[in-house]
């Protein structure tokens, strides 16, 4: 098994709309095991079917309901964050798509019984018509959902950000990207990292993850990330291709990078 401090889970099948209830027995066992193993489930990743920007009202409504229920499940399991892909406008245009996402988020909070868990918009690679590949997109959504700003944050996916055109390969360039993030959105809204290298080049806008140090981003970006005083205390989740051995290997790589240790 891979020894880690935090994990991310799916609370249901991420490729289906079905939302089976979580039994009292499962809830108790989950909370008991989390405590005994000293592992925090920092996030639930919402369904990949969600599209809050969809021009198809049926899909948008199903997405809203699904996300509202995920927040409730997060409360039940004592999980702080629900990470979600905001969606693709499918030809309706970025402005309309962003407005749809913002309005949908407001509906999610209105119908959900959740009072604790926080929604994290995941930065995207910008593949196809997917939105939130630019920091300005997230800023605009936040501005349109101001009354719920305390229940919103950002999950910064290193692979997606790189593929969207933000160069994070060196300490200098990564620092500049964080400065831009702070100016546009605000670092206070950055809550979680997805730690992935990239199979594709800078700005490719194609979502393909790679193991840490084996892709186009390289080790220096991750050395900077795990040691930078502004962000090093934020939780990070690996989403790499491969099996458990790959996760062990990548966890070891990241730990060796802490405090500038050589590999």
Automatic annotation (TrEMBL):
NCBIfam families: nfo (TIGR00587)
One of the protein's GO biological processes: base-excision repair
Organism, scientific name: Caldisericum exile
Cofactor list: Zn(2+)
Keyword Metal-binding: yes
EC number: 3.1.21.2
Protein name (record): Deoxyribonuclease IV
The UniProt record lists the keyword ATP-binding: no
Top-level taxon of the source organism: Bacteria
């Amino acid at each position: 098994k891979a020894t880690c401090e935090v994990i991310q889970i799916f609370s249901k099948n991420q490729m289906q709309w079905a939302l089976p209830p979580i039994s009292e027995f499962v809830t108790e066992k989950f909370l008991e095991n989390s405590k005994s193993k000293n592992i925090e489930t920092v996030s639930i990743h919402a369904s990949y079917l969600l599209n809050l920007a969809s021009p198809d009202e049926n899909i948008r409504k199903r997405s809203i309901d699904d996300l509202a229920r995920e927040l409730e499940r997060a409360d039940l399991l004592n999980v702080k964050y629900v990470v979600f892909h905001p969606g693709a406008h499918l030809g309706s245009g970025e402005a309309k798509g962003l407005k749809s996402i913002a309005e949908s988020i407001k509906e999610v909070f209105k119908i959900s019984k959740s009072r604790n868990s926080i929604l994290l918009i995941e930065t995207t690679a910008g593949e196809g018509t997917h939105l939130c590949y630019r920091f300005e997109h997230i800023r605009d959504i936040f501005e349109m959902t101001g009354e719920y700003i305390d229940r919103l944050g950002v999950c910064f996916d290193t692979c997606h950000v790189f593929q969207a055109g933000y160069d994070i390969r060196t300490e200098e360039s990564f620092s500049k990207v964080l400065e831009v993030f702070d100016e546009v959105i605000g670092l206070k809204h950055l809550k979680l990292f997805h730690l992935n290298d990239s199979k594709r080049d800078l700005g490719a806008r194609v979502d393909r993850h790679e193991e840490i140090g084996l892709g186009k981003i390289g080790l220096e970006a991750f050395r900077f990330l795990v040691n930078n005083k502004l962000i090093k205390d934020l939780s990070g989740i690996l989403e790499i291709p491969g099996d458990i051995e790959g996760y062990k290997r990548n966890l070891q790589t990241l730990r060796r990078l802490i405090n500038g240790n050589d590999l």
